[in-house]
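Board notes (copied after class):
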Amino acid sequence: MASAREMRLRIRSVKNIAQVTRALEAVSASKVRKAQQAVLATRAYAGKAYDILADLANQPGSLAMLHPLLAARPEVKTIDLVLVTSDRGLAGAYNSNIVREAMLFARSQTVPVRYITVGRKGRDLVFRRRGQIVAEFSNLPASPTTLDIAPIGRTVIDDFLNGAVDEVYLAYTDFVNTLKQVPTIKKLLPFSTAGVTRGGLSTIQAESAAGPKVPFIYEPNAMELLNAILPRFTQLQILQAVLESQASEHSARMVAMRNATDNAEELIGSLTLDYNKARQLAITSDLLDIAGGAEALAKAMQK
């Protein structure tokens, strides 16, 4: 058993860790409220934009003639995967879950998969697993705008239009609520309403894709509208994925820090109990030594 001094030092160190995790939990709690407000504020707009774009894509005529970003390639030779993670850790399994999902997706493909990483943690994990990284973006602001996302969207669109890749997928964490975040992979380019998943923004898009269709009359024609809004909507999807991921990150970090604080307090209680037992054992041993010494001294004086 460790000495009382060692236990005292360990209790002090665990208390210091608990103070740090409690502070990180408070910071994440304040950030998660702002991130949730940003997600909920833009989710309805992103869902309605998805609905309009789906209707435009279903207009009569060839998809390739309507816009090149709608044209599916006859043979898929290379895939780009935009992987959205965080720049910092201490978020539980948030980063590892989405990277694992991305790796499983890459292994399930029969063609090479290249990575465009958003966030240092995803970049480092993909690099350690020897994935091919063609672009890396990090240090995004706490409240990103379309201007901050524009370089990512431009890279994705240029790769697709230049023929460097034939499909582009988006891997991010869909925010459902504070306790539930769903790793999600969906096709970004060419645009398609098929394979929409459930949860968070994906639920809105799935309901839009499956809901009743109202015929729209567009002026000017669908081709001119697609030329104007399709690149912007591609950037909007990336922006919404980043916002969803940020809300998921702060929620996961808040829950992880709360669990760490609870575990630290439980460990402090256990260590304090062991420390008190060790003190009682030491006091008992001292009393036994004193009583034994007094008894031996009394016998010596009687002789």
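Comment from the instructor: The longest strand covers residues 167-177. DSSP finds seven helices and five strands in the chain.
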